[in-house]
């Protein structure tokens, strides 16, 4: 922490000077999560918060689609991302043209797109969802057939909890597909008391091995409320480090998979971003209006 202290101090001072707020995803490193973030949360919480901030500048500490979502919801604000190359394997797996292809293949079926998509894909979708509300959003569709994009694993996990027929795009999260059901069974053998908590971007057989599955915020709440003695968090491993101090009685077991995109956001880059007011996230206003419809429909269906 001593190494980070000068950055934390400088960032917190610059935030006031520039009338800025830092919205940070739960996967940020502990020094960002605890040191400089004004608000931390999962994708849904961050999107909702973006509609409420009073400051003129939002510094999004997360990946590019999250910053774009903030800009879509708060077009009058200046939205900065400390590294615009912080992408997402899911967002990069699909284009608006692919959505049109899915619509042509399944005429009349509504398109539910995960927020892990570009503004262009959101604009081509009927409604968005996140990992915390995907089942409810799918259930709220009038049609019996629903198209889910771009995460094929999330779609298959949702399919197990709804009567709707789901067809899906076969995108994957590069972090969560690394977890294997066999690996979890091995952990169970050696740590039979451990509680396994998996993110729904994991493959279906991995989620089936878990005791609980939920969004990053859902996973954090589960650990804080239940305080299991031993926990295996089957998700990006900054999560365990971020909440470890708040639940000292909980012992976090491996494995550790990091998201290379989330890891691009560092204190140094946040400081530079605020100092130079870069990199600004720009969304074509016409596209933003269409994308906002899909995101706002999701927020309104809460
Ligand atoms: P959450 O909405 O659960 O925070 O998920 C975002 C994400 O990118 C997980 O990989
Ligand atoms: Fe995308 Fe997966 Fe990284 Fe989340 S963890 S930002 S879904 S690549």
Automatic annotation (TrEMBL):
Catalyzes the condensation of iminoaspartate with dihydroxyacetone phosphate to form quinolinate. [4Fe-4S] cluster binds at residues 88, 173, 259. Belongs to the quinolinate synthase family. Type 2 subfamily. Its cofactor is [4Fe-4S] cluster. This is Quinolinate synthase. It comes from the Bacteria. Pathway: Cofactor biosynthesis; NAD(+) biosynthesis; quinolinate from iminoaspartate: step 1/1. InterPro entries: NadA (IPR003473), NadA_sf (IPR036094), Quinolinate_synth_type2 (IPR023066). Pfam families: NadA. The keyword Oxidoreductase does not apply. Binds 1 [4Fe-4S] cluster per subunit. The keyword Transferase applies. Its EC number is 2.5.1.72. Its main location: cytoplasm. Gene3D superfamilies: NadA-like (3.40.50.10800). It is found in: Cytoplasm. Iminosuccinate binds at residues 25, 43, 114-116, 131, 199-201, 216. It catalyses: iminosuccinate + dihydroxyacetone phosphate = quinolinate + phosphate + 2 H2O + H(+).
């Amino acid at each position: 922490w001593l190494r980070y202290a000068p950055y934390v101090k400088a960032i917190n001072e610059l935030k006031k000077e520039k009338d800025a707020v830092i919205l940070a995803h739960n996967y940020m490193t502990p020094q960002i999560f605890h040191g400089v973030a004004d608000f931390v949360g999962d994708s849904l919480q961050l999107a909702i918060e973006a509609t409420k901030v009073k400051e003129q500048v939002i510094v999004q500490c997360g990946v590019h689609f999250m910053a774009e979502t903030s800009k879509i919801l708060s077009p009058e604000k200046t939205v900065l991302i400390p590294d615009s190359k912080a992408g997402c394997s899911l967002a990069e797996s699909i284009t608006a043209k692919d959505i049109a292809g899915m619509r042509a293949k399944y005429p009349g079926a509504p398109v539910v797109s995960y927020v892990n998509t570009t503004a262009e894909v959101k604009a081509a979708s009927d409604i968005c969802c996140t990992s915390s509300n995907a089942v409810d959003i799918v259930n709220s569709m009038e049609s019996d057939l629903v198209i889910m994009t771009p995460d094929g694993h999330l779609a298959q996990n949702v399919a197990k909890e709804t009567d709707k027929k789901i067809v899906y795009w076969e995108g994957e999260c590069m972090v969560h597909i690394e977890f294997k059901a066999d690996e979890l069974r091995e952990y169970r053998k050696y740590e039979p008391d451990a509680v396994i908590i998996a993110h729904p971007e994991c493959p279906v057989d991995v989620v089936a091995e878990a005791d609980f599955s939920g969004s990053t915020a859902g996973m954090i709440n589960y650990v804080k409320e239940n305080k299991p003695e031993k926990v295996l968090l089957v998700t990006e491993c900054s999560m365990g480090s971020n909440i470890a101090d708040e639940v000292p009685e909980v012992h976090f077991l491996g494995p550790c998979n990091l998201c290379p995109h989330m890891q691009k956001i560092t204190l140094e880059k946040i400081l530079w971003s605020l100092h130079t007011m870069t990199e600004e996230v720009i969304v074509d206003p016409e596209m933003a209006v269409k994308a906002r419809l899909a995101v706002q429909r999701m927020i309104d269906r809460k």
